[in-house]
Design goal:
The protein has 97 residues and is mainly β. It has 1 helix and 8 strands; from the N terminus they run E-E-E-E-H-E-E-E-E.
């Protein structure tokens, strides 16, 4: 891990984690499912880096988070935002420069 990576965990309502999650059958109880990170298969309560930001080489220097959204500014002044906003939902990380 480098200091510029962003990790997230918790419920992914409205894309708030900034990563893709899927529901899989709970191995301990077939009547239930658990939400996991699509790439790592780790449960959402476990912190996982936001892979799309790593893959694009985004180096965060400032981060802000709210109830269902997050945003970050890179060392080059680029903005990335994800989650739910008052009028519109961003279900993926949207680059704005």
């Amino acid at each position: 891990m480098t200091i510029s990576q962003i990790w997230s965990c918790g419920t992914n309502d409205n894309g708030a984690l900034g990563r893709v999650t899927v529901n899989i059958p709970d191995p301990n109880n077939a009547a239930y499912s658990i939400e996991v990170d699509e790439k790592t298969k780790d449960p959402v309560w476990k912190p996982v880096p936001i892979h799309s930001l790593i893959e694009e080489g985004f180096r965060a220097v400032k981060i802000v988070a709210g109830d269902s959204f997050s945003a970050a500014i890179s060392n080059e002044g680029e903005l990335r935002a994800w989650g739910a906003f008052a009028v519109r939902t961003l279900n993926h990380i949207t680059p704005h420069t």
